[in-house]
Design goal:
The chain has 7 helices and 10 strands. It is an alpha+beta fold. The protein has 2 domains: about 180 residues, Transferase(Phosphotransferase), domain 1 (Orthogonal Bundle), CATH 1.10.510; about 100 residues, Phosphorylase Kinase, domain 1 (2-Layer Sandwich). A 6-stranded antiparallel beta sheet has the order 1-2-3-4-6-5, covered by helices on one side. A two-stranded antiparallel ribbon has the order 7-10. A hairpin with a 2-residue loop joins strand 2 and strand 3. Helix 1 crosses helix 4, helix 1 packs parallel to helix 7 and helix 4 packs antiparallel against helix 7.
């Protein structure tokens, strides 16, 4: 019953039929009249700066990565300054997203001629053990998942000291960008989007993976209307999935987007499970 209520709530939010999840959040189904839609980024993901609990401070490493780096038409840097021409077998075309957790490029495999979204660690993170550990945790989580509603990981490794993850390139908008540009989704489109995301989450949860940051800007819609879950940078794997009980590098840290977090995730970040993702999808 909780699952059904949560998913129904998500569909209503995207179609503009439900009130905001929390007062401090700008809902994805609304755009303030004083702020043009085309001037806004990450609609629905903004929160006030506050510390909900002193015992679980927000990890600054997880606050500034722009998941729109996987969007086909979201270029944030049009020149070649600081952009490598090649990483291993991949020819770099342009930078499409960046933040404290990584940089994402549109690239092409030199032999297969397949376009990919190539994520790398920022240069300043390359020698930080925790950053590298987090990056490879994302790689391992992505490697466990193969589903039409989750962005596919193709390849990963390290070349000349550059750690990279090659992923499916989705040439389409996030749900937050889509709503900001065109307004609330039609009810049928909203239901379809949430259904696709729920299917992807079901697959991830069955594999022992909890996303921990489900929100409109981490849900992308392809040209054919399929919605895919992106950005596994905060994903947590269960002991059953990994076969180990090691301490995570972000243990005890509050990670994710507060406006879409479940109360349980806020209170005890280390105890989060699949139900928190369902809550976040409902808040979407």
């Amino acid at each position: 019953m909780i699952r059904l209520v949560s998913l129904a709530s998500a569909s209503k939010r995207l179609s503009g039929m439900a009130p905001a999840h929390r007062e401090r959040q700008t809902p994805v189904s609304e755009t303030p009249e004083s702020e043009p839609a085309h001037d806004r980024r990450g609609t629905g993901d903004e929160t006030e700066s506050f510390d909900p609990t002193a015992s679980h401070p927000m990890d600054p490493d997880f606050q500034d990565f722009d998941s729109s780096g996987l969007i086909g038409d979201s270029v944030i840097d049009g020149d070649r300054h600081g952009i490598p021409s090649r990483v291993g077998d991949y020819r770099i075309e342009k930078l499409v997203g960046s933040g404290g957790m990584g940089r994402v490029y549109l690239a092409e495999h030199a032999t297969m001629l397949r376009p990919v979204a190539l994520k790398t660690l920022p240069p300043e993170r390359m020698r930080q053990a925790n950053a590298v550990e987090r990056f490879y945790a994302e790689i391992r989580a992505a490697g466990r998942l193969l589903h039409p509603n989750i962005v596919t990981a193709f390849d990963a490794g390290c070349v000349d000291g550059v750690h990279y993850l090659a992923m499916e390139y989705v040439n389409g908008p996030t749900l937050s960008a889509l709503v900001a540009e065109s307004g609330p989704l039609a009810i049928g489109d909203a239901v379809s989007a949430i259904r696709d995301a729920a299917r992807g989450l079901s697959h991830a949860h069955a594999a022992g993976i909890v996303h921990r940051d489900i929100k409109p800007s981490n849900l992308m819609r392809t040209r054919d209307g399929t919605v895919k879950i992106v950005d596994l940078g905060l994903a947590a794997a269960s002991v059953a999935a990994t076969g180990t009980a090691g301490r995570r590098s972000d243990s005890g840290r509050l990670v994710g987007t507060i406006a879409f977090m479940s109360p349980e995730q806020l209170e005890n970040p280390d105890a989060v499970d699949a139900r928190s993702d369902i809550y976040s999808l409902g808040a979407t």
